[in-house]
Amino acid sequence: MIDIKKLNQDSENEIKSVKTADELFVVEKKYLARGDGEVVKLLRQLKDLPVEEKRKIGPEIQELKKYIEDLVNRRRSELADEAQKESEKYFDRSLPGKPVGRGTAHPISQFMDRAEDIFTRLGFETVDEREVDNEFYNFDALNTPKDHPARDIQDTYYVMNPESWSLKHQSNDTRYKIQDTRLLLRTHTSTAQIRAMKDRKPPVRIISPGRVFRHEATDASHETTFNQLEGFVVDKNIRVSDLIGTIKEFFARMYYDKDIKLRVRPHFFPFVEPGMEIDISCIFCNQKGCSVCKHSGWLESAGSGMIHPEVLNNMGVDPKIYSGFAFGFGIDRMVMVYYGIDDIRLLYSGDLRFIKQF
Ligand code: PHE
Question: Which of 47, 139, 159, 170 has its CA 20 to 30 A from that of 351?
Answer without folding.
Answer: 159
